[in-house]
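Hey, I'm writing a tutorial for new members on how sequence and structure tokens pair up, and I'd like a real worked example in the thread rather than a made-up one. If someone can provide the structure for the chain below, I'll link this post from the tutorial.
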Amino acid sequence: MTRDEQGRSGGPPAPLAIDVEALHKRFGDHEAVCGLSFGVRAGEVVGFLGPNGAGKTTVMRILTGFLPATDGTARIAGHDVFSDATAARRAIGYLPETPPLYPEMTPAAYVDFVARLKDVPRAKRREAVDRALERCGLLGVRRREIRQLSKGYRQRVGLAQAIVHDPQVLVLDEPTVGLDPIQIREIRALIRDLAASGNQTVILSTHILPEVEAICQRVILIGRGRKILDQPLAELTTGGVSLEEVFTRVMTRDASDALEKGAA
């Protein structure tokens, strides 16, 4: 969504929780991200989609400060992710595809550890940890070692550490990958509840299109590191069209355009 579109209602534009401008990332001769620009408003829930190799995870890692951009800027809650990295990281909660958990720790100890890293004040830390464990359905296993938990519960621990400091922005990268159908439903419901609270901006990268249809308000679709589509989900699925149909049509057209350019 452009800044003009955000301001069409007549008032000032809604604040941008995520602001990406002319982003490039090169690995040697390969350009993984090519001039990508988009904004996500505070409180918005956006699905960030694309085929394998499109550059989704690279963008997620740039937003969360794990990779430097080659060119362009990325801001979280107004803070540049590299020149103002500490403030940007305090404003963000990140669940990577494989959460970096310590298996010998308990969920309670691990989430408390992350709360310390995120500078949650000591006076508020226990309350913040208990709230995150409760929201993620972990109170019943809070004192079991993480190694003893199912993958679904480990994903819950990953979500709990992402929200313990009450971040303004949640970045979720393939949050249900490798889970069984019951676990997928549970994690999807948990993310939906987090999004419904309205307190956090969520950007969700996933290959599971029904997940986006169930949770997100808007879709950003990228291919070959470029933005191909940026539109509200309700508009894309008008008339009963599924997101899968839209995805297939758009990506097929993009692949055809790429072949024509290559032939030229």
